Structure to design on (796 residues):
């Protein structure tokens, strides 16, 4: 299913500020890293916290489950969160 | 099972789960590192001993998060697993290494391994870091997982190892429990959709029902799993192209049905497994919700180490500290080695009677080898620091901080580690690029990697700087010599980054780049394993480089010592020797760079390996020196006078020009052989050899001629 267009106004991980917590709702279509995210336990229903932005930007650090992981901001825009 | 046959055990786990530490503890020094055929992924095999003295073999696999073949490391593991399933030498037991502090994500892989029908012993590592209140009950774990055993342990504290060995041994002859039921709850409609694939795998390939179901699920989720079957066609009799295309057809049909049912095929496996894991872990009072609120000690450390301003500053400071210490700490053991080599050659002088052999021994072998082992302390220090940064978890932070910059020039945050390894040696650096999934980013990383000044350049820089750059202090704290060294590393690195950008503009991209990188907790590196790593790398360097250096030193000694007399029977000097003639022939070409014929010989021999420059110069000066004493190489170079001009052969400007040449020149043939293997074509290595040597000549020319023009000498 292609979500493009339907979810124009939805919140994504890209909207989070440092320290914010959110629950993953879905992934936007066409995200290559999606399967990799899911294998690492980042999937719908899972709660995450934005730990920090990289000093020079571009990447963010999240806490998911028991561990810390860094992803790119452009990928974060494709992780939809529950409002 | 044949009792006389030694059983073998596979070690599989997530990256950062402490797998390597467990491997080292179990095998001690009884390990052999080799490569998988065709690719340069390290294959580590070791011999272990059970508590009753029985010997077993242990095979360490690259760290992986799942049994899907996305990166090369993962491909190794999944290919092996498929071979085992098809009956090719399966292990007696699989030890699934699990980080107890990160249970759910680590157990994901364990659940995949449990499907294989091979006894699984879970090594529940890092139990020392679990707070007592959480109290994971290993017994209840093995019950619902269906593992042969769950052994709580700590590789760091060396706890639980004997228990692990006992459980592994006890599991060798057991049949895995729970093997015919697929433990995940595959709901009815999905089960029905998967059934055609499952039954094909069951009937055609003889898979056990549980593995057939798991594999069907994986085939739907990841296309790369299908690719695995395609490449297995050539290697295995069990699989033929008809079966594979049948699987492919069934797969497309199933995917359509799943999409129609409103599910996402690409997320099926992960959803099902994590659902199952999370439910079961929740029943064990394992609260996921609270975990993300907890601030781990590493996060507090990162408030400084990846701080907006402090983070990048600390990284640069660390680099500077490492390179300064290469000079200052290393000088003491270097003095000892120098004294030892001098003692050895004086000993040879008194013990061995005057002969050609003595000449070869002292001026060829001892001078050649001696000039190289003197740089060993510096190489060891560099490797020590790099291993420390890697094992502590700091390198992941570096990738996190630098990904944006790296991406701008066509690289990946994960390119940082290979590039930094390149400071030690390009070869392991090239190998570690395999963690970069995207081919374009990986290729560019390899293309520029040899420009990172490796430890083989260190002897060249050290010799030139030690002899020609005055040991003065500038700006109160910076030693000029250390600064010069940093400059050499710096120009190589900066050129590499500029070229990366240029290459990224004309190399075609395949597939999207992704970046999902675990930030492992900071861990105090296990010193024993750091030293082992340094020892193994140093040994490799010494033996690989040593062989080449010894051979070249001997050949060179002959070329430089003969013919002993000319046609008229006069005693000749090195100028008229074979080596001298070669050097004089190429001298016109390198004169614009400030190099004389002696350097010319060294440039040729350096094609085998860069550090050979030093031993070449040592051999040449020792042969030239008519006395029997070994000459101090740097003194000999300082005192060398050009007979026609009356000026010194080597000046600070020549030294800088020579160093710049060595920053850029493509000289280490071993590196290009590895890159040829990794890229599977000569196209890229040849391209590198050309671009690097052109750069070397041009920039060295600019430095020397520009320097002369500015009035330097």
């Amino acid at each position: 299913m292609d979500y493009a267009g339907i979810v124009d106004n939805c919140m994504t991980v890209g909207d989070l500020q440092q320290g914010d917590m959110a629950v993953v709702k879905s992934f936007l279509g066409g995200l290559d890293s999606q399967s990799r995210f899911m294998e690492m336990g980042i999937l719908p229903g899972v709660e995450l916290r934005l730990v920090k932005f990289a000093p020079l930007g571009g990447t963010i650090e999240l806490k998911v489950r028991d561990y810390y992981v860094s992803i790119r901001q452009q990928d974060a825009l494709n992780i939809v969160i529950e409002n | 099972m044949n009792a006389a046959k030694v059983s073998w055990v596979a070690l599989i786990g997530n990256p950062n789960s402490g797998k390597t530490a467990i491997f080292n503890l179990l095998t001690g020094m009884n390990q052999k590192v080799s490569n998988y055929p065709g690719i340069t992924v390290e294959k580590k095999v070791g011999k272990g001993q059970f508590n009753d003295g029985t010997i077993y073999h242990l095979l360490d696999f690259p760290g992986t998060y799942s049994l899907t073949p996305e990166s090369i490391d993962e491909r190794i593991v999944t290919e092996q697993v498929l071979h085992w399933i098809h009956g090719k030498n399966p292990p007696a037991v699989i030890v699934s290494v699990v980080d107890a502090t990160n249970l759910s994500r680590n157990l994901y892989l364990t659940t995949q391994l449990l499907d294989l029908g091979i006894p699984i012993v879970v090594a529940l590592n890092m139990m020392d870091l679990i707070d007592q209140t959480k109290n994971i009950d290993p017994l209840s774990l093995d019950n619902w997982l269906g593992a042969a055993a769950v052994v709580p342990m700590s590789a760091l504290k060396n706890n639980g190892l004997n228990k692990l060995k006992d459980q592994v041994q006890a599991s060798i002859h057991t049949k895995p429990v729970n093997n015919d039921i697929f433990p995940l709850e595959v709901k009815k409609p999905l089960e029905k959709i998967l059934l055609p694939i499952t039954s094909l795998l069951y009937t055609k390939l003889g898979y056990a029902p549980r593995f057939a179901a798991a594999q069907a699920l994986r085939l739907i989720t990841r296309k790369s799993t299908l690719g695995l079957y395609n490449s297995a066609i050539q290697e295995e009799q069990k699989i033929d192209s008809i079966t594979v295309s049948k699987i492919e057809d069934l797969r497309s049909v199933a995917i359509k049905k799943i999409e129609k049912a409103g599910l996402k095929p690409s997320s099926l496996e992960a959803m099902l497994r994590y659902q199952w894991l999370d439910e079961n872990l929740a029943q064990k009072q394992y609260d996921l919700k609270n975990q993300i609120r907890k601030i781990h000690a590493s996060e507090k450390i990162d408030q400084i180490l990846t701080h907006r301003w402090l983070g990048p500053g600390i990284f640069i400071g660390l680099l500077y500290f490492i390179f300064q210490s290469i000079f200052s700490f290393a000088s003491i053991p270097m003095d000892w080695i120098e004294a030892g080599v001098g003692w050895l050659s004086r000993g040879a002088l008194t013990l061995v009677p005057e002969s050609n052999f003595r000449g070869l021994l002292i001026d060829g072998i001892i001078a050649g080898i001696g000039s190289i082992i003197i740089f060993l302390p510096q190489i060891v220090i560099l490797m020590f620091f790099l291993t420390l940064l890697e094992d502590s978890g700091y390198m992941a932070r570096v990738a996190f901080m630098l990904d944006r910059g790296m991406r701008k020039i066509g690289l990946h945050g994960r390119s940082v580690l290979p590039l930094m390894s390149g400071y030690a040696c390009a070869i392991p650096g090239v190998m570690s690029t395999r963690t970069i999934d995207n081919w374009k980013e990986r290729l560019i990383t390899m293309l520029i990697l040899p420009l990172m000044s490796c430890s083989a350049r260190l002897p060249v820089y050290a010799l030139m700087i030690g002899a020609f750059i005055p040991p003065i202090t500038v700006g109160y704290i910076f030693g000029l010599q250390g600064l010069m060294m940093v400059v050499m590393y710096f120009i190589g690195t900066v050129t590499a980054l500029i070229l990366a950008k240029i290459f990224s503009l004309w190399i075609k991209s395949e597939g999207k780049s992704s970046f999902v990188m675990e930030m492992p907790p900071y861990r105090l590196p296990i010193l024993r394993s750091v030293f082992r790593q340094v020892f193994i790398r140093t040994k490799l360097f010494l033996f690989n480089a040593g062989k080449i250096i010894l051979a070249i030193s001997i050949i060179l000694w002959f070329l430089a010592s003969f013919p002993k007399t000319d046609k008229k029977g006069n005693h000749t000097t090195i100028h008229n020797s074979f080596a001298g003639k070669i050097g004089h022939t190429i001298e016109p070409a390198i004169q614009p760079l400030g190099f004389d014929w002696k350097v010319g010989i060294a440039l040729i021999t350096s094609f085998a390996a860069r550090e050979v420059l030093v031993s070449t110069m040592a051999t040449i000066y020792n042969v030239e020196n008519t006395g029997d004493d070994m000459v101090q190489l740097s003194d000999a170079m300082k005192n060398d006078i050009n007979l026609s001009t009356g000026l010194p052969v080597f000046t600070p400007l020549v030294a800088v020009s020579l160093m710049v040449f060595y920053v850029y020149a493509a000289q280490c043939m071993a590196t290009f052989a590895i890159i040829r293997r990794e890229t599977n074509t000569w196209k890229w290595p040849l391209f590198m050899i050309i671009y690097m040597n052109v750069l070397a000549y041009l920039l060295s020319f600019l430095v020397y001629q520009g320097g002369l023009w500015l009035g330097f000498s």
Remarks:
- The first helix of chain A runs from residue 34 to 39.
- Chain A touches chain B at residues 1, 21, 27, 32-41, 43-44, 46-49, 51-52, 54-59, 61, 63-72, 75 (CB under 8 Å).
- Chain A has one domain: 13-81.
- The radius of gyration of chain A is 12 Å.
